[in-house]
Amino acid sequence: MTRRGVRKYVDDLLAGRRPASFPADDFDAAQIRTAIELRAAEPGADEPRPEFVDGLKSRIAQQFSPGELEGAAPTHQRLSATRRQVIVGSAAAATAAVAAVSIEHLVTGRGVPAGTEQAGAELVPNEGAWLAVAKSADLAEGSVLPFELPTVTGFVRRAAGGNVEAVSGVCTHQGCKLWFDDSADSLRCPCHVTSFSPAGEVLTHQLPIAPKPLPHFEVRERAGNIEVLAPRPPARPA
């Protein structure tokens, strides 16, 4: 946790200054989100800044001729006012939308571009073998267990309804080994503050581009064991 970064971010936010970004973990993000809500609750927080209004007026003035703004008839003035209101309203709505997305991306890294796939591809080796990774009796519904084989590492979980699923234990960003955070029910990457759900979807990240979801293994239960289809270890030279 970067306490100095959180303190400066919150101080700048409450003072009306533009905060600088910094690497934040989930606890930092929760504190910043609370500060944003408090700032938004202050009287006048919903009013635009004077410099924004001045800039907007200047841009609007460039879209009208002097006659439209000064010497038009009353009816035309009313029509122009309506037109200006539309422009102002549209600009304000667009600005608010951009600000909301920017804050969400800055604080939590959840700004995943539209169309990003949310289900990982299935990892099917060219030459694989079914290998036991856990006992069926040890995997209760909703629980997650890690496994490590000679060629792959991953996690198995028993989803609602009793189905067993298995995902890779390697981050799709740069290959760091994930660990399971039981308190947050997530798979965490120690390298770049990225986290995945036990089903493999990306939950949080602070990367310029969202990482891919975790690949899935083929998995089955047989004779009291949970098995995954994993690549065979390479043959050792004689």
UniProtKB/TrEMBL annotation:
<dbReference type="InterPro" id="IPR036922">
    <property type="entry name" value="Rieske_2Fe-2S_sf"/>
</dbReference>
<dbReference type="InterPro" id="IPR017941">
    <property type="entry name" value="Rieske_2Fe-2S"/>
</dbReference>
<keyword id="KW-0479">Metal-binding</keyword>
<dbReference type="GO" id="GO:0046872">
    <property type="term" value="F:metal ion binding"/>
</dbReference>
<dbReference type="GO" id="GO:0051537">
    <property type="term" value="F:2 iron, 2 sulfur cluster binding"/>
</dbReference>
<keyword id="KW-0411">Iron-sulfur</keyword>
<feature type="domain" description="Rieske">
    <location>
        <begin position="131"/>
        <end position="228"/>
    </location>
</feature>
<dbReference type="GO" id="GO:0016705">
    <property type="term" value="F:oxidoreductase activity, acting on paired donors, with incorporation or reduction of molecular oxygen"/>
</dbReference>
<dbReference type="Pfam" id="PF00355">
    <property type="entry name" value="Rieske"/>
</dbReference>
<keyword id="KW-0408">Iron</keyword>
<dbReference type="GO" id="GO:0004497">
    <property type="term" value="F:monooxygenase activity"/>
</dbReference>
<keyword id="KW-0001">2Fe-2S</keyword>
<protein>
    <submittedName>
        <fullName>Rieske (2Fe-2S) protein</fullName>
    </submittedName>
</protein>
